[in-house]
Amino acid sequence: MPATATHTRRIVVADDSALMRRLLADALVRQGFAVVGEAADGDGALALCQRERPDALTLDLQMPGLDGLGVLRALRERRAAPVPVVVVSAFSPAAGARAVDALAEGAYDLVAKPAVGESLGAFCDELGRKVSEAARAADGHARRLATRPHVPLGDDAPAADGLAARRSATGTVVVIACSTGGPRALGALVPALPAPLGAGGILIQHMPQGFTASLAARLDARTALSVREARPGDVLDPSALLVAPGGAHLRVGADRRLRLADDAPVGGLRPRADLTVADLARTFGRRVLLVVLTGMGRDGVEGAWAVKRAGGRVLCEAESSCAVYGMPRAVADAGLADAVLPLDKLARAVALELA
Question: Which of 45, 158, 216, 309 would bridge with 243, disulfide CB 3.0–4.6 Å?
Answer without folding.
Answer: 216
